[in-house]
Amino acid sequence: MKQRLITFGRAMLQPFLVAINVYEIAHEQYVDAFIVGTLISFVWTFNVRSVVVGDMKDRVLYAFGAGVGTIAGLFFVNFVYK
Length: 82
Description:
The chain is mainly alpha-helical and 82 residues long. The chain has three helices and no strands. The protein has helices at 2-26, 30-52, 56-81. 23% of the residues are buried.
């Protein structure tokens, strides 16, 4: 159970950061975009390994976490930047 929560959290974090990064790029916030872009790649290195060795439940959980992360990132951007 603990490992699945970690998988969900990592899956959520990556698109959360991507949503923020898209806004930063669109608004030419170079330093912020660089920092968040670097974090995206760093998180990705952990995500690849956890999904490749996982089963179908892990993959579905990962995909759901990514969807939640996308929406959470959108809310975050609207709250912080607007």
